[in-house]
Amino acid sequence: MNPTRSFDADQPIAEREIPVYEALALDIKSRGIESVFGLMSDDTALFVTTLDAIGVRFHATRHENNAVAMAEGYASATGRLGVAVIGRGPATANALHGCAYAQRTGSRVLLVFGGSSLAHRANGAAEADAKEFNATGVLEAMGIKTYVANDASSARATLAHAVQATGQGGCVALLLPMNVQFQSIAYPGAMGIPAPAPAANPQRIAARPAAIGAAVGLLAHSRRPLIVAGLGAHRAGARRALEALADKIGAVLATTLKAKDMFHGNAYNLGIVGSYSHTTARRLIDQADCVIVFGAGLNEKTTSYGTSLPTNAALIQVDLSHAKIGRWYHADLSLIADAREAAEQLCAALPARADSDKAFYTADTRERLTRVDMAAEFQAANTDRTMDPRSVALELDRMLPASRNAVYDAGNFLQVMPYISGLGPEHNKNTVDFASVGMGFGTAMGIACATPERSTVLFVGDGGFLMTMSELETVAREGIALVIIVLNDAAYGAELHYLKMRNMPVAAAVFSDIDFAPIAAGFGFETATVRTLIELRALAPMLSNPQGPILIDCKINAAVAAPFMLETADHEKRTP
Ligand SMILES: Cc1ncc(C[n+]2csc(CCOP(=O)(O)OP(=O)(O)O)c2C)c(N)n1
Ligand SMILES: [Mg+2]
Q1: Distance (Å, rounded) from C-alpha 226 to C-alpha 13?
Q2: Average pLDDT, the chain
Q3: pLDDT digits (tens, 9 = 90+) for 38-85
């Protein structure tokens, strides 16, 4: 690469031809893409260096999975295209977990991979490439549409097609074989097609009038309706429409875990349905005589294996996807529609209801909900050297800035989620789409990069942290102001409880008590090790306005099993 060359996507480079990788970099820039995430290999080093040189910032991670997670976090926080650039062969193999995860989130991510040269396959003469790997086969098997830049003359068009395909949501892969990247082509100027912006509401599909009529008929008999909203409803921008519908029919409002805090501030907000529910919510949900579900798949986590919703209540399920209707739970009536559109249709079609027919809408319900005290939901199990994770969560909830993004890895510690309040689903990122451990750290870095104006806090177990802690270096090098809360039970807590509940020895799931703070301090983090709530409270000045990278190693009591662990074990006992 000639360092004196000026890179400008809109200027014809008439004087000579340029390598394909450079043309692709210029095209990426011309689409308004400002950041890419990755870990370079020999086949992508020139490409990412060129991207960075022309002003498309290359954020380098220390593991490929975390680069893909970072691109997904960036995409989910901005609604823009997330781009990850990953090497071929072993690097691609390293990234596959992240790819499977990102694919399941539905975020728009372009996965650019290097590829072995195609030429030697044609003439059988080129040297062997130990990194050769059937990436297309693997990625397609994972359900990821994969484009290959087969030759220099069509490479730019292939990039354009791949970017275009991300407009449908989800991940799209683009393979760039080395021999194609390094050929030269004329570059008459940028293709000038911006990356497809996500439509505010891409599919505002209305429900069939007959289905609305049937739903109105069911709701006419309901005195105590419950509205359950999932991430689909949040993505459809349905909050106001659902609140208006609730108000009209006297419904209480709840969400799935993924749509946590969607009804934050509403007087009839019950919080989360399922094992994360508080006692008051459970009691009110039990009284519901009709449940209307918007944009939620109703998996066993939401329904607590079929026990969290009253079984005798009629259930109306609203979803854009036929495949989601009745998939995991029964649906008595289905509306194939956009959540917001259907809520508005129902609101318009339903007759006004007298206050006396809104059995949930009483001063008593409102008072019970304002009196909810999460600290009274459990008996704190603090010990001399460890804290109850729920107490830690309640303390942190008070201490961390109110305007924050919370990102969660996965494990037994996820039981802290209901104790940490949030401003809405867009500020809570739960990375369990693939039930993975290890997607939290990268995602949190991507979200923090995308939204530097607000604090991003990663909640991670010690096991998930051990899997991804190489990224401490990335946070420090990139100057990402991330707060990492390690919920350290010195164990794979989820497996520990899994084994314990089945009367098996737990030794293989237990670690030594690792002190992570000095390790993070070595990377330049501000750190603390905390064993008591008093020590934790003393960190208020550090946590109330975090400026640089912070890591708090919270030693928590491994004996506290998450309610969802107990539910799974109970379900197993009930199922032959
Ligand atoms: C990639 C991956 N590996 C393994 C698992 C199985 N698994 C689920 S939870 C868990 C324990 C995670 O430990 P930690 O991060 O310390 O959280 P804890 O359960 O202790 O709260 C493991 C190993 C998984 N879900 N994903
Ligand atoms: Mg643990």
Answers
A1: 62
A2: 93
A3: 999 999 999 999 999 999 999 999 999 999 999 999 999 999 999 999
Q: Which CATH number fits domain 374-568: 3.40.50.300, 3.40.50.620, 3.40.50.720, 3.40.50.970?
A: 3.40.50.970
Position 203 pLDDT exceeds 70 = no
- For 573, counting Cβ atoms within 10 Å of its Cβ (0-12 exposed, 13-18 middle, 19+ buried), the class is exposed
Given a cut of 70, is residue 380 above it in pLDDT? yes
For the chain, which residues make up each domain, given as ranges? 16-121+128-187, 209-370, 374-568
Which residue in the block uniquely carries the two structure tokens 């596959």?
96
> Measured from the CB, is residue 489 less than 6 Å from ligand 1?
yes
Q: What is the mean pLDDT of residues 235-243?
A: 97
Question: Rounded CA gap, 457 and 202, in Å?
Answer: 30
**Average pLDDT for 477-491:** 97
Nearest-atom number in ligand 1 for the CA of 413 is 21
Please indicate whether residue 491, judged by its CB atom, sits closer than 6 Å to ligand 1: yes
The alpha carbon of 439 and the centre of ligand 1 are apart by a number of angstroms equal to 11
**CATH H-level, domain 16-121+128-187: superfamily:** Thiamin diphosphate (ThDP)-binding fold, Pyr/PP domains (3.40.50.970)
pLDDT of the residue at 170: 87
Cα separations in angstroms, 387 against 73, 380, 383: 30, 8, 6
- Nearest one of 142, 105, 136 to 442, comparing CA atoms: 105
d(CA 435, ligand 1 centre) in Å: 9
493 lines ligand 1 (CB under 6 A): yes
**C-alpha 500 to ligand 2 mean position (Å):** 15
pLDDT tens-digit series, residues 385-428:
999 999 999 999 999 999 999 999 999 999 999 999 988 999 99
Q: What distance in angstroms lies between residue 490's CA and the mean position of ligand 1's atoms?
A: 12
Q: Is the CB of 562 under 6 A from ligand 1?
A: no
When pLDDT is cut at 50, 70 and 90, the band that residue 195 belongs to is low
Residues 136, 130: Cα–Cα separation, whole Å:
17
pLDDT digits (tens, 9 = 90+) for 282-303: 999 999 999 999 999 999 999 9
| Atom nearest to 437 CA in ligand 1 | 26
At residue 197, the pLDDT reads 57
461 in contact with ligand 1, CB cutoff 6 A: yes
CATH superfamily of 209-370: TPP-binding domain (3.40.50.1220)
- pLDDT value of residue 367: 97
Ligand nearest to the CA of 463: 1
User: Distance between CA atoms of 267 and 377, rounded to whole angstroms?
Assistant: 20
Pocket residue to mutate for ligand 1, from 492, 501, 557, most atoms within 8 A of Cβ: 492
* Common-topology check for domains 16-121+128-187 and 209-370: yes
Distance between Cα 358 and ligand 1 center (Å):
44
- pLDDT band at 1; cut points 50, 70, 90: very low
Q: Considering the entire predicted model, what is its pTM?
A: 0.94
409 CA distance to ligand 1 middle (Å):
9
Report DSSP state, residue 11.
Answer: S
Contact 89, 68 (CB under 8 A): no
Count of Cβ atoms closer than 10 Å to residue 140 Cβ: 13
Which residue type, as a one-letter code, is found at position 229?
A
